[in-house]
Amino acid sequence: MKKLLTAVVLVAGTMLTGCAGSTTAPSATPRLSVEESCKFLNTDTFVPSGSAKEQAGQIGQHYQEVADKVAPEVGAPIHQMADIMKQVAASPTGTKTDEQTAQLTEQINKIGQYCK
Question: 25 in a domain, yes or no?
């Protein structure tokens, strides 16, 4: 499970830097299968940069872009994670609360039901 958490964090980071300039509409790209989605998540190497607020915003954007690419079963929790990170980015400090951390963990566990 720690490996999955690390992969999801890395995916989020990679998507922020790798996809920030992407203008492709989500509906224009076919979604990956569950198996392909899990493989993608485990190889994503996104790394955010900047202040905590900037990183949280980048991660939220990356999660959103990933959610739009992967299978719906995996994408739904990632979409929730994107929303949480966007809330973090909107906070004064850009740091997660304990509740937000718990919510992110819950979503990661949902992804773990499909990506073992």
Answer: no
Q: Which two structure tokens, joined as six digits, stand for 93?
A: 């400090």
Domain carrying residue 75:
2-18+30-112
In a domain, 52, yes or no: yes
Let me know if residue 103 belongs to a domain.
yes
Q: Residue holding tokens 């198996």?
A: 35
Q: What is the C-alpha separation between 22 and 94, in angstroms, rounded?
A: 24
Residue 92 domain-assigned (yes or no): yes
What is the rounded average pLDDT for all residues in the chain? 84
Under 8 Å between Cβ of 4 and 115: yes
Residue 8 predicted with pLDDT over 80 = no
Q: Which residues contact 22 (CB under 8 A, 6 or more apart)?
A: 65
51 DSSP 8-state letter:
S
